[in-house]
Design brief:
The complex is a heterodimer of chains A (231) and B (422). By secondary structure, chain A is an alpha/beta fold. Chain A has helices spanning 45-53, 75-85, 101-111, 113-117, 123-133, 139-142, 151-163, 181-198, 221-224, 226-230, and strands at 4-14, 20-30, 34-38, 60-65, 68-69, 86-89, 169-173, 201-206, 217-220. Chain A has one domain (4-230): Rossmann fold (3-Layer(aba) Sandwich), CATH 3.40.50.300. The longest helix of chain A has 18 residues, at 181-198. In chain B, strands 1, 3, 4, 7, 8, 9, 11, 12, 14 and 15 form a 10-stranded mixed beta sheet that branches. Chain B has a two-stranded antiparallel ribbon with strand order 2-13. Chain B has a two-stranded antiparallel sheet with strand order 5-6. Classes of the chains: A alpha/beta (231), B alpha+beta (422). Chain B: Residues 20-208 form the MacB-like periplasmic core domain.
């Protein structure tokens, strides 16, 4: 078993409509590593995450996730890998509006028997435990509609959802851009702690270079993406 | 699948307002459709149950539907009558088991008066060979006795012994046109049958002759009122004509030959009809209107389905985010498709279910009134296969309609990936 949870080689991606968005020779993410990927908006980072998550297919090259080349898998298998091994946190509006807080956190388990099996006890219990670790202990808060939560609280619910069932990789796409500085640092701290706890590798994407100090390693997308340089 | 079903349900609950409106649209359309269908089958059953056990009805030549309508349903008028000797000839035919003459043309406060013989009560059957039952009193016996149907008794508040004045023709009694010098008396009240019998006043054939003494020209002879009851009783009251004859045969097998024999009667021209056949002909007349009505209600259901489609399509844009979240946590595009199809199907299913409950509620409240007014029984059409089929068809149609937004979301979820441009 390789130590690389994500390994990208000679990746090229273009939208059918136009020019090349990504041209990456090499990009790796080690198991358990906390990596900061810096990229301004429009640099192709969302596309890169889509490729890693297996919802997009590369035009050329390899995207290996846990040793499996996503480019060679059928869409259903890619969906399976995403469900079983990836947790995703978006910039905002992370939650399904008609599910409860706990329902949102346990949602990935509904699509992944493997992650469901990773939890020994009651799944709702596990969701509450994770929420508590991320600082959401107030039971009255957990009963509220998710749309009534503050953005910071919503992001922590999303973090709990990304972590539940112990996926190997957690991808966070600008999860702190809507938070103020204090909340932002506190969120990244919690996220890092929790990732360390479950052993998940954390791929944190942001345009804000000042956050790099909070991670093991930092990569600038503009440096590795030749397509961006050529454009 | 359970996951998706529960997601679909929670998603609908989250959009209660628009979902309830859609449910109402579907429920009303289904209720309308089933209401039309139940009225249709109720009317058919009601009409079909009006007469049984009578193999032939004979009248003066006219349309067979027309003969059926005036002789059995008391609708419209006979164009001509049958002479008494001809009636006698038919009674004495070898193949005829019984022949009951009826004489129509008079009314009592809006109810038709029918002259007949007491044999009528033995041979006239309705529904599944049910006999007429005299609930109160007895059959007519005296010249001025009347046996009234259940509705007549109820609506006019008559009881045994109540006097009644018959009027000539079919209008309400008006001064001078009445047979007011010949007062009748109620001697019997029939049990309700749900047929036109309930709205008929039955008297003897002789009584019909008696009230027309002095009316031979068609209008009232000024001297008519001077003829006393005693004088009338002394007259020969054998009728000169009857309106129609109900016939039972000795052997059912001869029905067609007997009919032909009567139709080709060498003397007076006659027409014999088989009630069930004439009913079928009547249906072919009404079938067009029925079908048109049914088609309209089917279109109304289609509008209901379209409203499901509209509500889902309009919600699709604001739910783009939700779809990409579901994709991110591992949902396949097929899950997204199933979610939207199920939402549509659930609304269709629930809407149809509410519609079915609604129409049965309406029928259980309004049914007795409809039966009382129109003699159409809708109560026999309780929850049945039609309801089940409608439920299935509406659900299926909703699922199919849901496939349109589901396909759009499916395509979009493939194109959007994880990033959603808001």
């Amino acid at each position: 078993m390789t130590d690389l949870v994500i390994s990208i080689e000679e990746l090229r991606f273009s939208w059918p409509s136009g020019g090349e968005v990504l041209n990456i020779e090499r990009f790796d993410l080690n198991a358990g590593e906390r990596l900061f990927l810096r990229g301004p908006s429009g640099s192709g980072k969302s596309t890169l995450l889509g490729l890693i998550a297996g919802v997009l297919e590369p035009s050329a090259g390899h995207v290996n996730v846990l040793g499996k080349d996503m480019a060679k898998l059928r869409p259903a298998s890619r969906d399976r890998i995403r469900a079983d091994h990836l947790g995703v946190i978006f910039q905002m509006f992370n939650l399904v509006p008609y599910l409860s807080v706990v329902g949102n956190v346990t949602l990935p388990l509904k699509f992944s028997p493997a992650r469901r099996k990773a939890i020994s006890g009651d799944t709702d219990e596990e969701a509450r435990r994770l929420l508590a670790r991320l600082g959401l202990t107030d039971t009255a808060l957990l009963d509220r509609r998710v749309s009534d939560l503050s953005v910071g609280q919503q992001q922590r619910v999303a973090a709990a959802r990304a972590m539940i069932g112990g996926p190997e990789i957690v991808i966070a796409d600008e999860p702190t851009s809507a938070l103020d500085a204090d909340a932002r640092d506190r969120f990244i701290e919690l996220l890092s702690e929790e990732a360390a706890c479950t052993g998940a590798a954390l791929l944190f994407v942001s345009h804000d270079a000042s956050l790099a100090r909070l991670f093991d390693r930092a990569v600038d997308l503009r440096e590795i993406n030749k397509a961006g340089a050529a454009a | 699948m359970n996951t998706i079903l529960s997601l679909a349900w929670k998603s609908l609950m989250n959009r209660k307002g628009s979902v309830i409106l859609t449910l109402v649209a579907v429920a009303l359309s289904v209720a309308l459709f089933l209401g039309v269908d139940k009225a249709r089958t109720g009317a058919r059953e009601g009409f079909g149950n009006t007469i049984s056990g009578t193999e032939l009805i004979v009248g003066a030549p006219t349309g067979s539907v027309n003969l059926l309508l005036y002789s059995v349903f008391r609708m419209g008028n006979a164009t001509a009558e049958i002479s008494w000797p001809t009636y006698q000839k038919i009674v004495h035919r070898e193949d005829v088991d019984w022949a009951v003459p009826i004489s129509l043309g008079d009314s009592h406060r809006g109810f038709r008066v029918m002259g007949t013989t007491t044999d009528y009560f033995d041979h006239y059957k309705y529904g599944r060979n049910k006999d007429l039952i005299i609930a109160k009193g007895k059959r007519f016996d005296d010249l001025f006795d009347a046996v009234i149907g259940a509705d007549v008794a109820k609506e006019l508040g008559y009881d045994i012994g109540s006097p009644m004045v018959l009027s000539h023709g079919l209008g309400k009694a008006s001064l001078g046109s009445g047979h007011d010098n010949r007062p009748f008396r109620v001697v019997g009240i029939l049990a309700p049958t749900g047929t036109p019998v309930d709205r008929t006043v039955h008297v003897s054939l002789e009584a019909i002759t008696a009230i027309h003494v002095g009316w031979e020209t068609g209008a009232k002879n000024p001297l008519a009122d001077t003829i006393s009851e005693e004088m009338i009783r002394s007259f020969d009251l054998t009728p000169k004509t009857v309106t129609a004859i109900f016939i039972g045969l000795k052997r059912k097998g001869t029905i067609l030959t007997t009919r032909r024999a009567i139709n080709t009667n060498p003397g007076e021209p006659l027409m014999a009809i088989i009630p069930s056949q004439a009913l079928a002909e009547l249906w072919s007349v009404t079938a067009m209107a029925e079908r048109a009505l049914l088609a309209v209600s089917v279109f109304v259901i289609a509008v209901g389905i379209v409203s499901i489609l509209t509500s889902i399509l309009t919600s699709l844009n604001e739910r783009r985010r939700e779809m990409s979240i579901l994709r991110a946590v591992g949902a396949r595009p097929g899950h997204i498709f199933a979610l939207l199809v199920l939402e549509a199907g659930l609304v269709g299913f629930l809407g149809a279910l509410i519609g079915i409950a609604l129409i049965h509620l309406i029928l259980s409240i309004a049914g007795p009134m409809i039966t009382a007014h129109y003699g159409i029984s809708l109560m026999g059409t309780g929850p049945g296969l039609t309801d089940l089929y409608t439920l299935g068809a509406v659900t299926l149609a909703a699922l199919l309609a849901g496939a349109i937004p589901a396909w759009m979301a499916f395509r979009r979820s493939l194109a959007d990936g994880l990033s959603v441009r808001l």
